[in-house]
Amino acid sequence: MSPIKLRHGAFLPPFHPMNENPSACIERDLELMQWLDRLGFDEAWIGEHHSAGWELISSPELFIAVAAERTKSIRFGTGVISLPYHNPLMTANRIIQLDHHTRGRIMFGAGPGLLASDALMLGIDPNTQRDRMAEALDVILRLFKGETVTEKTDWYTLVGARAHILPYTSPHPEVAVVSAVTPSGGRLAGKYDLSMICVAATNPFGYDALAANWKIANDIAAKNGRQMDASRLRLVGPMHIAETRAKAFENCKFGFEPYLNYLNNNQPRFIVPAGQDPAEWFVENKFGVIGTPDDAIALIERLYEKQGDFGVFLQQVHNWADFAETKRSYELYQRYVMPHFSGANRPRSESFDWCSDHREELTEKRTSAARAMFEKHEAEQKAAMTIRPPKGKEAW
Question: Which of 229, 226, 102, 68 lies closest to 173, judged by CA?
Fold first, then answer.
């Protein structure tokens, strides 16, 4: 058992097929945030995308502002803001404002931008995105600390720039960088002591890169006299669970194949061999889970074996099943997967087992106690009959 208490959350890109009402899709995403909040999930990360049709949220900050008003305790992160698309002063100010709106329930996730189609619409060369992310992140962290920044690059100019209010959270909200395949996320996490989100922990690219990128982060942190905190490492993986595997696969007929087609349309990655069922192939290759709570537990334990300690498992929100079955999947996860890793039922199991081990002794004591009560009652009845006065005469 890891010494780090595992936390649980969701990573919402989001994915929505193009034959559905987009307004209704966004509203269901908000309803899902409320559902996760009621179930006791710890956090949810919301993506930013501007093209390719499926991922509808262009401003995670706007979505989070609405979701925070509808929830009580779940924390929200930008998953992520694509820094090369925004002036760093504007990004810093929006996060600071959200930090105040949510009274500290905001986390700032930063990335270079995933979709090349987003960058091309903005006239940005995708080859520059990771360097621009690093430039912007450095400025934002300085603005969070109250510094004044004057800086000119080939894509932004700041003159005496500063945040006119400081974050609600001291010293600032938690900051996380994404890590998929390249080492850029690990390098920045190690340099600035940031959290890290491995968005592809179970797919064939991110799974193999996970250990290498975490090592890069630790090596760079060590050079700066620090140690990475594994409790701030988050691993993302897709799953859908039901009471039985057969039911889970049946549920996923609703949307799994369109989901896979979208991922491959953006960048061919999951090529299913001819004649194989896509969902079965996906599960056989351990890219995710379609199964039962036990299968979900097995996936997370496999990640422990691969990675060692980490702090949060984030379910990728994917809409493989219709909304009712999707909500049911998260409910089953809360009922059976969360307590497995928290150990919440360990005292109950120990108590049950102790009773089993001492069953004969407990049975004898219970029987003996009952027998003693009967004997006491009979003795009291006999005593009462002995001292009762003769009928028709008053007691002395």
Answer: 102
Contact residues for 148 (Cβ-Cβ < 8 A; gap 6+): 160, 161, 162
Indicate the pTM of the whole model: 0.93
**What pLDDT, in 10s, does the model give residues 266-319?**
888 899 999 999 999 999 999 999 999 999 999 999 999 999 999 999 999 999
Q: pLDDT tens, 164-190?
A: 999 999 999 999 999 887 888 999 999
Task: Give the Cα separation of 337 and 350 in Å (integer).
Answer: 19
**What integer pLDDT is reported at residue 390 of this predicted model?**
61
d(CA 228, CA 170): 20
Beta strands 289-291 and 195-198: pairing type? unpaired
Instruction: Tell which CATH architecture fits domain 7-346.
Output: Alpha-Beta Barrel (3.20)
Per-residue CA distances from 174 to 132, 219, 356 (Å):
21, 21, 47
3-state DSSP call for residue 64? helix
